[in-house]
Amino acid sequence: MDTKQIDSLLASLPQARRLSPLELNAIRFSGRKTIITEARLKRASRKKSGKV
Amino acid sequence: MSETNSPTIFTDFLSAAGVKHTYWYSARQFRDMPFRTYFGLSKLLQSYGIESVGLNLGDKSAVDRLPLPFIAQTPDGNVIVTRISDGKVTYLSRGSREEAELGRLTEAMSGNVLVAYPSADACEPDYASHHFTEIADRAKKWVLIAACAALFAYLFLSNRLYSHVSTVLLTLINLCGVYISTLLIQKSAHIKNRHADAVCSVVEAGGCDDVLSTDASKFFGIFGWSEVGFAYFSVSLLCLLIFPQYINLLALCNLICLPFSFWSVWYQKFRAHAWCTLCLCVQSMLWLLFFCYLFGGWLHGLLPLRPQLFVLGVSYLAVMLGMNALMPLLDRQNVSQP
């Protein structure tokens, strides 16, 4: 990896941090089609707040 | 799009990043990934000469500073962001290009992204060989069509079938008959075909399915009429092309098959109470063939019966039995059951 590119990217994103291999391995691919709509956002936030 | 040709996030990403790859190899690599996670994908990308890094943005509004394309995690799944411009975002999901407001994306995102840096020579391992295989695979179908067309043209011309209007029409009608019978076979085998669906809906929507699901769609309960039809038209076409001297025998076989058309129409009207457009097309073709034989002057010299009639009959039977043996393998309902 060109560390200069990643270093300059991280420098431009002061609040960003690298994900560890364990964290990377926790993010799975569902295989589902994902469409970003207001309805889905509301449903997701209701799910997050435990209302669904 | 069949399941085997469905885009994956990996193939979508490679396409968006402009990295040379073949769909079949890359999709297989993604499917066989041991870890179906960002970690597994980063290792797979590495094998393609694409270095990547997973980031948690912290401040999601910084998303427009990321190099494109990148993969963003949302609660509903992962998307590949390909363009951010004028407050709008273009992203890919399962091969579909979608648009959304930038604000909606940042709201949807969890903050976790996978950013990639393809090297200048990044591409699929053994790309040249895979690409050749991909082209050869696509070419197979067209080579087959071209070979059949060439053979057909040779036989049609060398046997001078063009010299008489009736033989030209007989060839065309038998060709149509083969096509319609193929559609009927696909319908019987529950193989989805939009051409068959379009033709079937002409007289009565769903009529073909209604009629083909009845017991009468099977000859003696064993052979589907679609198999009988396919055997009839294909053998008749081949006999006409290869042995045009036996056209009288074909005319005799057509005469024998004609009464079936009355039974078929009677059954559809009074028993099935549904009209099968494809079946009606087959009956029409039988009658068109009859008129071609009649006005072409081919309904002569039918008696005494010749041994070649036996050979022709056995040929019809052999093709019909062969199709009948193949049908369970073609039937999607059998394939989908465990």
What report would you give on this structure?
The complex is a heterodimer of chains A (52) and B (338). Chain A is built from three helices and one strand; from the N terminus they run αβαα. By secondary structure, chain A is mostly helical. Chain A is elongated, with a radius of gyration of 16 Å. The termini of chain A are far apart. Chain B is α+β, with helices and mostly antiparallel strands and 338 residues long. Chain B has helices at residues 9-16, 23-31, 38-47, 102-108, 127-158, 165-188, 194-200, 207-212, 225-242, 247-272, 277-295, 307-330, 332-336, and strands spanning 50-56, 70-74, 77-85, 88-93, 96-101, 112-118, 218-219, 223-224. Chain B has a six-stranded antiparallel beta sheet with strand order 1-6-2-3-4-5. In chain B, helix 6 (165-188) runs antiparallel to helix 9 and helix 9 crosses helix 12. The two termini of chain B are 23 Å apart. The interface between A and B is large, with 36 and 42 residues.
Question: Could you give a quick summary of the protein structure above?
Answer:
The complex is a heterodimer of chains A (52) and B (338). With 52 residues, chain A is mainly α.
Low-confidence runs of at least 5 consecutive residues of chain B: none
As residue ranges, the low-confidence spans of chain A are none
Q: Do you know the CATH topology of the largest domain in chain B?
A: de novo design (two linked rop proteins)
Structural class of chain A, by secondary structure, is mainly alpha
Distance between the termini of chain B: 23 Å
Q: Quaternary status of these chains? A: heterodimer
Q: What fraction strand of chain A?
A: under 5%
Q: What is the typical, i.e. mean, pLDDT of chain A?
A: 78
Kindly name the structural category of chain B: alpha+beta
Please work out how many helical segments of chain A DSSP would assign.
3
| Main sheet overview of chain B | 6 strands, antiparallel
Fraction of residues of chain B in helices? Answer: 55-70%
Q: Order of helices and strands of chain A, N to C? A: HEHH
Largest contact between chains: A-B, 36 and 42 residues
Shape of chain B: elongated
Q: End-to-end distance of chain A, in Å?
A: 43 Å
- Helix proportion of residues of chain A, in percent? 40-55%
- What is the succession of H and E elements of chain B? HHHEEEEEHEHHHHEEHHHHH
